[in-house]
Structures are given as structure tokens and as C-alpha cells.
Amino acid sequence: MAIFTVIIGVVLGLCLLSTFLLRWNEMKYKKKGLPPGTMGWPLFGETTDFLKQGPSFMKNQRARYGSVFKSHILGCPTIVSMDPELNRFILMNEGKGILPGYPQSMLDILGKSNIAAVHGSAHKNMRGALLSLVSPSVIRDQILSKIDEFMRSHLLNWNNQIIDIQEKTKEMALLSSLRQISGTESSLLSKEFMREFFNLVVGTLSLPINLPNTNYHRGLQARKNIVRMLEELIDERRRSQETHKDMLGLLMSGVENRYKLSDEEMIDQIITILYSGYETVSTTSMMAVKYLHDHPRVLEELRKEHLGIRERKMAEDPLDWNDYKSMKFTRAVIFETSRLATIVNGVLRKTTKEMELNGFVIPEGWRIYVYTREINYDPCLYPDPYTFNPWRWLDRSLETQNYFFLFGGGTRQCPGKELGIAEISTFLHYFVTKYRWEEVGGDKLMKFPRVEAPNGLHIRVSDMHK
Ligand code: HEM
């Protein structure tokens, strides 16, 4: 009986303490004009619910509070916007009290000149310099042949193998970019670079606690090593005075490039290119392989497009700009993959002053999560939204509608969109014209917070022509 009373006492005590803590945290953030919502526990907020329940947490909060609500996630008081109109407004109106709001660990590791860390004229300059490296004419004249050469060798000898397509597409995204950045030296650099780069990526997604053995510490260390490798590369090129037709060559040539960057800025630009295209391109490629496997009719149509291109060429001929431009169905497959898998859930911004949005008052220093995931499943935009149906994208107006946020929007819309599509298209070209594949089975796929196969996605590959 006494034990029973003690247990009841402890449970009641815990309930009271929890209620007190939750109430106290709500009061701490109480301010007139803020959107409705809950702030969760002191310090941790609602991060656990957000990470555990993912999209359903967002949908539940929206059902309760509307499409703009407050929360406390990932260490910050946050306004979540699931309102397409407001999302568009935020993306289009950077500067007027709104700036990128990416986590500190990411900014520290990607460098202070990285594009997400700069704004105003510095952003214009870094963005201009980047756009000049990945413009359609540079893709056509310089990059496409490098991608082609890389993909051919990357996809060699997959026949009769069990391949972890997640691992292969990650290597592909990084090494293909490295080839575009430093054509001739990339194969010498690639092994050491890859090890450091993977540590850098993990570091950007960690808590910024700089203690030995933390991911953040390893990420900072990886950044140092990558910076050293790139500095050596730049010094070597200056000494040799050879000209190079690659991204680093363009960045270093003051004549052709009107955006003159310092060495530090060039290095941060290179890290940005590698980082921004890495997870987006690799995950979209992996998920395209998954969806194609599950939808034989789509695979058949895609293969038809690529075999048609091959028929017009000799086996050793690389893909050229006209081939790439003719890949209408491939482009549709890439958009549909990006939409259905939601490769990017949204983007982060922060307020630099108190401001009004949709009639709510947003305090200075709050993060805004421009959450675009649900737009991907809006039946008005995408009838039968949970079906993998690339044909819907053959109507090109879908790519130009106001709520097309697969590549962001406004002043920070992805400058690497066409480059990313060219890489994935070239990968798919060689993959579907050379191979058939089936899934080994039993692999899990996580959809949130990132699309990921925790233990890899294994496929058994065989030669198409045997
Ligand atoms: C399928 C592939 C890709 C997807 C889905 C994608 C998606 C996105 C999205 C959603 C944003 C907006 C971020 C924001 O507003 O904060 C963005 C920005 C960016 N992307 Fe991509 N991206 C892809 C490929 C690439 C590639 C290959 C590059 C390499 C050049 C790249 C470079 C960038 C950069 C530098 C930014 C920041 C732009 C700025 O802040 O002005 N992306 N991307």
C-alpha cells in the first residue's frame, strides 16, 4: 500500500513538473501577434516530435493551428510556413528583414564566403561568379563532355554485381563535380578528397560543439584539410601557368571571368558547389533507380528515349548538347522523382528585425522554416499526387508555375538546376542503356528528415544485351 502511494506521488509529481515546464516555456515565448502553436520543452522544444513524426507532425500542427504556426525545433524558436503564397513571398523578398537561416555548424564548416552565409552585394557577387561557371553555354562546351567521360568510367563493370546504389550515386555526385572543378588533377585528388568530404558533410549536420571526437570537430578538421588541398592546387596551377578548361580554370582567369574572387572566396565557392550538388544529385539519382524499378512502364519509356539517342551515334560517341536537350521524358522522370520523394523538404530563413507576415508579428532572430513538402502532394497541382507519373511533366507549364519549389525560388533559386539535371540524365542514359537490375530486397528507405537508405539500397545488376 505504501509503495502504491509513493508511485502515485511520483507520477503526480512528474505530471505537475511537466505541466509546469511546458507552461513556463509557452510563457517565455508569449508575445502579442505571434502565430498560434506550441513551443514544447525548454531547450529541446518539439525537436523530438518533429524528427520522429516528420511530415505528420507538420500536418497535425497545421490541422490545429493553420498553415502558419510557431514551434521550437532544432534549437531555435521557429515559424513554420506551409502556406504556398507566403512561402513564395518569403523566397522573393530576401533582404527586407529576411536572410538565409542555416545552422551555425553548416556556416562554420562551409566557410564565411559560402553563398548561404553572405547576402546583399556579396551574395550577388558570389552568385554571379557561380552562374558564370554553370551557364548553359559552359555546360554545353565544357562540362557535358566531362560528365560523359566520368559516367562511362563510373558505370564500368557493374555487370553481374550486387551494387549499393546509394553508395555509388554518392560517389558519383562528388567525383563528377570534382572532375568538373579540376579536370586533370581530380583523379589524383579523389581518394583523399572523398574521405575528407564525407566528414565535412556529417559535420555540417551536427551540433556546433567543438570537442575532440564530435562530428562537428571532425567536420572542421575536414574543412581545414580540404582548404589545404585546394590551396596547393591553386598554387601549383599558378606556378605551371598552364591554362585549364574547367571550373577552377575559369575562376582563376581574371580575363574571362568578370567576377574576380579572392583565393579564400574561390575555395569557399568550390566547397559550396561540391556540397550543394552532392546530396541533392545523389539522392535524386538513387530514388530514380528505385522508382524506375517499381514502375516498368516508365522504365520502358525512358529506355526507349535513350536507346533512340544511342541509335543515332557510334558506341564511343559522347552525349552532346542536342542529345541532352532531346531528353524530354528523362527530365520529366527527374522532376517526378524529386516531387514524389521530396528530396528537399523546404529551406531555412531567419528574421533580422521584427516583422509582420500574414498579419502575424515575427520577432527578430526567429527562424522561418519555408516548408514546401506538402505542395508536392497538392492534388490541384498534381492530380493523383501519390502516383509516380512522369508524363504529367510533359506539360512544360508545370515547371514554370508559381509554386514550383523543387529547386527553391526567388533570389536564391538553385543556380545548379540545369547542371544537376544534366548529371542525373547522363547517369540514367548509361545506366538504362547498359544494364537491367532488380532489387536484392529487404532494404529500408527513410523519407524524413532526409531521404536515405540507412543500410544502403542494394541492386543486382546484369548486362542489358545478354
Ligand atoms: C537535383 C539537384 C538539385 C536540387 C533538387 C537542388 C535544390 C536546391 C534548392 C531547393 C535550393 C534553394 C536553397 C535556399 O533557398 O536556401 C538550392 C540552392 C542552391 N543550389 Fe541547388 N539543387 C540541386 C543541384 C545543385 C547543383 C548540382 C549545384 C552545383 C552548382 C547546386 C548549387 C546550389 C547553390 C550554390 C545554391 C544556393 C544559391 C543561393 O543561395 O543563391 N545545386 N538548390
From TrEMBL:
GO cellular component, one term: membrane
PROSITE patterns: CYTOCHROME_P450 (PS00086)
InterPro entries noted in UniProt: Cyt_P450, Cyt_P450_CS, Cyt_P450_E_grp-I, Cyt_P450_sf
Topology in the lipid bilayer: Single-pass membrane protein
GO biological process, one term: brassinosteroid biosynthetic process
SUPFAM superfamilies: Cytochrome P450
Membrane spanning stretches: 6-24
Protein name: C6-oxidase
Lineage: Eukaryota, Viridiplantae, Streptophyta, Embryophyta, Tracheophyta
